[in-house]
Amino acid sequence: MSSEHPGNGAGSADDSPFRREDESRDSAPQYVLPLVVRIERAEPPARTDALETAARAVLEILGDERSDGDGEWARAMRDWQDARIRKVVRRARGAEWRKACALPGITVTGKAAEVRVFPPVPLDGWPKELAKLQVSGTDLDDPAPPDPAALGEPVLWMSPEVEMSAGKAMAQAGHGAQLAWWELSGEQRAAWRAAGYPLAVRTAAPAGWGALTGSGLPVVRDAGFTEIAPGSCTVVADHPALPASRRT
């Protein structure tokens, strides 16, 4: 994944690990952030619920004390963020889900969705309990169009032009949440954390997508490893604390 930011391309927070130079990011050891979504056959979650829960899961691990300073996950989190911030979403049910939950990580729940996020691992170093889980099969639907986002709520605007599986879209929503996090000050991050990381994931109106991608808000541009063409704009992260914040 690559991204765009307002200003000079780095997050406004002093401790942002974002590197603009693609060459340096590609030469760093590559890690991936594993996310596992629970999809039981009888009661799969709604698509938007899953996307929002995955985005909040990414924020939860970014803001966790174990990811900071000398915390047990801090080194892996730094190494992961110094390279390309890859995320992979896999699915689990039944015993697979219970085994995944036994590994160190954080489980985040939405309206009905459950997503567990784990500390980053090397691309070829997945725990066996996660390595055997399937990436495919995360096609989810919304039973009805989601309500408009609440006034003042952070919104991750999904592209109306790019079709993605639910698993891919969950990873992209996570990227968008992370870019917004990088742009915020420590005080703004703390306020978001204290509120429980409220956010909405919505598909932008086609007529407003061009204005959003050019607004100065953080934009996710996919690296093209799976499903979609390299450089595709997939998400615009719209947090009310960002100076270019707008609604479409």
UniProtKB/TrEMBL annotation:
Organism for this UniProt entry = Streptomyces genisteinicus
Molecular function per GO: hydrolase activity
State the SUPFAM superfamilies in the record. Answer: Peptidyl-tRNA hydrolase II
Q: Which UniProt keywords apply?
A: Hydrolase
Annotated protein name in UniProt:
Peptidyl-tRNA hydrolase
* InterPro entries membership: Pep_tRNA_hydro_II_dom_sf
List the biased-composition ranges (Basic and acidic residues). Answer: 16-26
Spell out the residue ranges making up region: Disordered.
1-27
